């Protein structure tokens, strides 16, 4: 039975943000936070890399933040840590908790986890938002089972990057969404932008029927960490990543270059290297590219071949 203090404390609303690597979750969260400008918000950020780049990018937005790196919060290896972080966050009684799940995680059991009233009596689970990349989703839907599980476990879909998609790609993305979740509300957008009344979407969510969704293991992940010398130029960094980009799911990192600190971000074969001047990153975060790929993708050999072109500035490649 909940204690008297549990009864008296207002319940904290919890939102889950999911979606495959590169769908735009971090950009969306920046927009989502705007809806809670007058409330106390805590973020729980989950990344597969050892050092969390997304957490660094979000620190400027004022919310208290906890990071869980090195695996999915919904797999056995990280679940205990996640429950501990969630309990600590809930104990501080914020108005809102936003959880960003790793882009490779299967959140099938999330509703059951967040609705454990005996363990999390102050949590009021509002639902999950699934970010979808309008350009890449049709291909990923057919090759990465995690995508179907993320969509199946969510309550609202946000189809992002519609400005970059062809009419055929957008039509196929919507068709796949409608085929799996015909009644799901969805929004088409660019740069993760959402309307001021977006929270009203959650008032219409329906029970998904979790028992109908069999558990699927997280996508087999291959992760490389590439250490880059500050003597590399931004142009060289761009060209280096382009040489192996198509063999990856995602490449991301804060890299010190001859022209200053740069944010390197790659989704599919689209590589972006831009100046970074927001919240200062930790020394441990700077200088390392996290390269994520799946089983059967020849990423290690591709990165080694690319590194051979930059022997003085690619310092090391570690394979995990």
Characterize the structure shown.
α8 (167-180) links the parallel β6 (156-160) and β7. By secondary structure, the protein is an alpha/beta fold. The protein has helices at 4-8, 25-33, 53-58, 76-91, 110-114, 137-143, 145-152, 167-180, 234-242, 299-307; strands at residues 12-19, 41-47, 64-69, 96-100, 123-133, 156-160, 185-188, 221-228, 250-257, 260-267, 270-275, 288-294, 314-319. It is built from ten helices and 13 strands. The protein is globular and about 55 Å long. It has a seven-stranded parallel sheet, sandwiched between helices. Strands 11-10-9-12-8-13 form a six-stranded antiparallel sheet, covered by helices on one side. The protein folds into two domains: 10-212, P-loop containing nucleotide triphosphate hydrolases (Rossmann fold, 3-Layer(aba) Sandwich); 221-319, Hypothetical Protein Yjia, Chain: A,domain 2 (2-Layer Sandwich), CATH 3.30.1220.10. The chain is 28% helix and 28% strand.
